[in-house]
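Async update (no meeting this week)

Hi team, since we skipped the sync, here's where things stand on the single-chain job. The sequence we agreed to prioritize is pasted below, unchanged from the tracker. I ran it this morning and attached the output directly underneath so nobody has to dig for it. Comments welcome in thread, and please keep replies under the output.
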Amino acid sequence: MYTPTQTTLQTHLAYNPTAHSILSTLTLIPTSNSTTRSNSLPTPQPHHQTNPLHQVTDTRPSHLRASQNYTDVSLVDKYVMPSDVYSSLQSNTVLSYKRTHHLGRFDPSAPSTLAATAALYDREIEDRDIHVGARCRLLPAHAQFVGGSSEDGPDRRGEVAFVGLVEGLPGVGAWVGIRLDEPTGKNEGEVGGKRYFEAQGRNRGVFVRPERVEVGDFEVVDEFAEEMEEI
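Output:
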C-alpha cells in the first residue's frame, strides 16, 4: 500500500489548498500547521524568460538610407570558402557525405553514366539533323506543339548558330546555340565571357539541349510585320 510522505503531502498542499480540511480529517494534522509548512515551499518560477525588445535607429543621412539600405543581399559582402579548404574538411559537409557514400562524381559508375548522357545528346543532334545554318524553332520544355504553336506561347524561331560543348553550363554533352529572330533569348551568344556565336542583337541568343530543337523550313519572324499591317 502506498503511503505518502510528509514532503509529498506538503507539496500537494502547496498547489491544492482546498485539501487542507480533508488532510486534517484523515491524518489529524491541524490545518494551520499544514498551511505554515506549505508556505515555506518555494514559489514555482517560469522556465522561460521573455527577452526585452531592442529598437535600432538608423542615424545615417536620408540619401544613404535610400541608396544603401542593404535590403538586396547581393550588395552585402559574403565570405566564400576556397574550394581547396572546403575539400580538406573531413566531416559535416555535403562533399564529405558524397565522398563517404560514393554519390555523384564519387560514384564508381558515374563516368559511364555521364558518357551515356553525352552520347544521347549526340544521337539527338544526328537524328534531328541539327547543324549550323539550319532554320529551326524551339520546343518548350515539357510541352508539345499544337497547331504550329506551343501550349505555353507562340513559336520561338531562329537559326542554329552553334553546336558543341559550352563551358560554364551545367551537365555534360553538347548544347545548341540558337540565333533567335526576336529578342526573347537569354544572352548574345556568349557564356561566362566566352563568345560562341554572334546573336546580332540584345537577348537574341539562347543555348538549349538538342531535344528542344526542331529543324525545318520555318519562315523568319518579322517583329514589325503586325505593326505594318495596322498602319
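Quick observations from my side:
The helical segments are 6-15, 20-27, 31-39, 62-67, 83-88, 94-101, 110-127, 225-230.
The radius of gyration is 37 Å.
Reply here if anything looks off.
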